Amino acid sequence: MDKPIYPSIKSQAAIKNGIEAIKSKSTVHKAQNLTSFSTHFHQSISSLNTLNISKHANERLQQRGIEIDDAKWKAIEEKVTQAKKMGIKESLVLLNNAALIVSAKNNTVITAMDRDEATDQIFTNINGTIIMN
Prior knowledge:
By secondary structure, the protein is α/β, with parallel strands linked by helices. The chain contains 4 helices and 5 strands; from the N terminus they run αβααβββαβ. The protein starts with 11 loop residues before the first helix and ends with a strand.
């Protein structure tokens, strides 16, 4: 008669090591997911403060030769974010060379004009003004 072959029984140490390895992989996987979520979350939040320029406003900036450098756009974004926290929905942003109508609610520049053109205008439907140098 042939002897039956039984699978070997792993020792408690081997089982414990296997469980620890699975926990370790699970922890690494959770950490990666958490990092991934955290990264996406922070990107989403930062994109909420990014100022968009509508097609209309972009056309006006180009037509009127208005140039605003990156540092100034960043400063405008910060001021619009502050205005939004104060309850401002639509604002007039006055710069040395331009006037912008900005929807703080949507973080969007709606239209733009040069400063000379803005002096003869009446601005309606705004509830805040941001004056910048």
